[in-house]
Structure formats: C-alpha cells, structure tokens
Amino acid sequence: MPITRTKKETVLAQLQGAFNEMPAAIFTDFRGVDVAGITALRAKLRAEGSRYIVAKRTLAEKALASAPADQVEPLLAGSTGICFAGAEPITVAKALVDFKKEYNSFTIKGGILDGKFVTGAQVTRLAALPSREVLLAQLFGGMKGPHRAFVGVLAAVMRQFVGTLQAIVDKEQGAPAAA
Length: 179
Prior knowledge:
Elements: H1 5-21, E1 24-29, H2 35-47, E2 51-54, H3 57-63, H4 69-76, E3 80-85, H5 89-102, E4 107-113, E5 116-119, H6 120-128, H7 132-178
Antiparallel strand pairs: 1-3, 1-4, 2-3, 4-5
Helix pairs in contact: 1-3, 5-6
C-alpha cells in the first residue's frame, strides 16, 4: 500500500527533527529478525528513552541530505532500522549489542554520534564502556587519590616526629632510673 505524499512529508519532518535533536542515531540491519524480536527490542529501547524505527531509504536519505553521501550510503544499504538514542547513547549501544547476541543476523552498521559518523565496530566498543555513573565515580576516585596520598604523607611526618619525641622522653626517663 503506497504512502500518501502528506504522510511522507510528515515522516520526513519527524526524521529530520530526530536527527537534529537526538545525540546519537545507530543504524542496524534487521534482516532475519522476527516481528516479536523487533517488538521486544523497541520496548527495551523505549524504556531507555530511545526509539527504533524503520524508515524508507529515500526518506532517510532526504533527512540526511546535508551529510556526505559516501558516509550515509553504507548506513542505509539493505533493510535499515534506525535507533535514535536518548540521553545515554552507551546504554542504547549496550541494548543493541545484547540484542545482537540473541539474533546473529542482526547487525550494527554504524551511526552518528554528536554529528560524527562512527562504524559498527566503534558502536560495539562504545557498548563496552561503563555507564556514565560508573565513569564519573572512577573520575572522582582518581581525583581523590592524590589528596589522600598527600594527607597520608603529612600524617607520616607528624607520626615520625611524635615517635622521635617519645623515644627521647623514654630515653630521658630511663637514664635517671639506671643511674
């Protein structure tokens, strides 16, 4: 059943808006995945604040008209689903990689991350990164380390000084008793 011109214009406007508003778009090839699998993937991505759509190639090409054609063409070849990531592209990449483990025919072609084109392998490496909260905790832990070491050094100097004074006191108290 053909899509009307007004419907195409609406879908094109939605695609252009999504490409402009979302921080990441990941392109996948969904051949060999059944409807139940795609529905489960959409539900999982929706819970992450993202959405997964299947758009006509011509509409997606028009929505990405300002992008270099040599980078867009491999992303849109074949059956293409586009995952628009919400605030956390890492969690979306993890969800897609997990889904790929379930369905071997599902492939991640690549994506657009903050306006830059990335390959499917780079998306997979992005999925291997820890979440934002874990990265922030590691950063603050690393920043806290030098301060903790500096306090330890200062405390050691004071401990040694007090230990030396105590040894002198013990020696002085022990000397008259021996005499």
